[in-house]
Amino acid sequence: MNSSDQDKQRNRKIAANEADRQAVGDIRVSMWAIAIAVFAGVTVFGFVLAWFNR
To answer: How much is the pLDDT for 1?
Structure first.
């Protein structure tokens, strides 16, 4: 293999690793967004329930 082929192979591996890292980051952000939305929903539901039962 010449230097150009080695560079291309290295760049492909770097791109694949970066794509994997990006996917993990996206999943982490999505999980936080879901958790915050659930927390907000439960809080609003609690306030509404307390309001109707006063």
So the answer is: 62
